[in-house]
Specification:
It is a single chain. The protein folds into two domains: 8-230 and 427-445, Rossmann fold, CATH 3.40.50; 249-424, 3-Layer(aba) Sandwich (Rossmann fold), CATH 3.40.50. The chain has 19 helices and 13 strands. The protein has helices at residues 19-34, 66-69, 78-103, 121-128, 145-148, 151-157, 170-178, 183-198, 212-221, 232-235, 249-255, 275-288, 314-318, 330-335, 348-357, 370-380, 393-404, 410-427, 432-445, and strands at residues 9-14, 38-44, 58-62, 109-116, 133-137, 201-204, 226-228, 262-266, 292-295, 322-325, 339-344, 361-363, 384-386. A seven-stranded parallel beta sheet has the order 3-2-1-4-5-6-7, sandwiched between helices. The chain has a six-stranded parallel beta sheet with strand order 10-9-8-11-12-13, with helices on both faces. The chain starts with 8 loop residues before the first strand and ends with a helix. Bound molecules: uridine-5'-diphosphate-xylopyranose. Uridine-5'-diphosphate-xylopyranose (UDX) is lined by residues 19-21, 23, 138-139, 242, 266, 268-271, 295, 327-328, 330-331, 347-350, 353, 368-370. InterPro entries: UDP_glucos_trans. This is UDP-glucose iridoid glucosyltransferase-like.
Amino acid sequence: MEKQGENSSRLVLVLYPFQGHINPMLQLGTIFHAKGYSITIIHPEFNSPDPSNHPLFTFISIPDKLLESNVSLSPADFMNLVSALNRNCEAPFKKCLTQILDHKHPHERISGVIYDGLMYFAQTVADALGLPGVCMRPTAAAMLLFSVIPQTEQESVFETQIPELQPLELKQMFKSMSTNPTEAMTEVRAAALNATKRSSGMISNTMEFLEHAALSMIREYSPAPVFTIGPFHKLAPSSSSSLLQEDAHCISWLDKQALKSVIYVSFGSMASLSKQDIVEIAWGLASSEQPFLWVIRPGLVHGSQGTELLPDGFQETVGERGFIVKWAPQQEVLAHEAVGGFWTHCGWNSTLESVSEGVPMLCSPCFGDQFLNMKYICYVWKIGLRLETELERGKIQGAIKTLMVNIQGEEIRNKAAEFKRKTQVCVTQGGSSWSSLDEFTKQILSV
Ligand code: UDX
């Protein structure tokens, strides 16, 4: 049965089918459902979310033909995958949206199509059907600078000496992105930029105080208004959208640990490590003498379950002090009072989830935007420490101690706690994210 909200306005949300994108989009759905909108989620068949976790939404899957397109799912082949999804999904999406419009209740209206920035075909379809298209960006807003500033101007714009942006090294990022771009890269960037320009607005999962300078620059260049309504998960409590089974046993284990004593270790849903990294992490955690909760997801080390790579004698050495899971209820973990540090790959969702709970971070970025997020954490906000790319047990042990116990880490810990308070202000009535959401519904959805 079709699920309807109170105000008979419907929003269509278009998912990019990876964990770090599914979570924020479904959280956004929850926010708008709480505002009275009916929510339809349209998603490719690949990595389908479980509708039973979101009984108030309507889910429709569209054929993605990914198998026939012969693309790999590795981060290295990311642009080919995005290009294939956009090529393959446009026609079925148009058909699906047309059917929704034809069969909708006479009193219902479709207020807009909100799509992940990587599913830019949705803007083309929204334009063709006369609906407002809104681009949702699940990364730091600073990444948008590469979409809204014309390519020819980026190098000189990024020369500017804005103190808050200086540590992000945007010029170096621009240079590495423009050296030997593949055909798919050029195509995806141009199409995404084009869609952004035609969109009625952009929603960024960030907060004004976190990215003030980047947001001012984006607003100078973007014809579409930018709404900062993050962290989404703090504006409306959302049910889990994990593709892997969450292991809740770790929460009872956390309940037994001392206040702020646990280091939580997770490298997100896509990053990969070497066998030697696992050994160094294991001994680094063991010698830190802190309790730890470590997520070793299947595939973290390519082609392996991961846990079989743990070194001999490790389990005996750490005993009850360590807890290993395949996948954790991460938001709940970070909000737990026993957690005092997060060793992360700096995915944007993980970053925001840690910021909003005041948990200081140890940073091991692996690819893409994670390096920019790390620079924000360590050098702009100063709520974390960077670990060198080459993982080594002695350095790991030292960094954990600094982050969580030693006097040298005190400023970082205090600053992280301050960020939690600032986040709470943003998401309560009158705060910047709360007001931006209000503004978005008035300006874009009520047209
Ligand atoms: C990817 C990119 O790596 C990232 O840089 C980009 O910003 C978004 O897409 P991912 O690797 O999935 O993201 O990391 P992240 O953005 O941190 O998202 C992971 C999500 O999975 C988070 O919402 C986190 O709470 C959740 N998670 C992770 C769990 O629920 N349990 C876990 O055990 C680990």
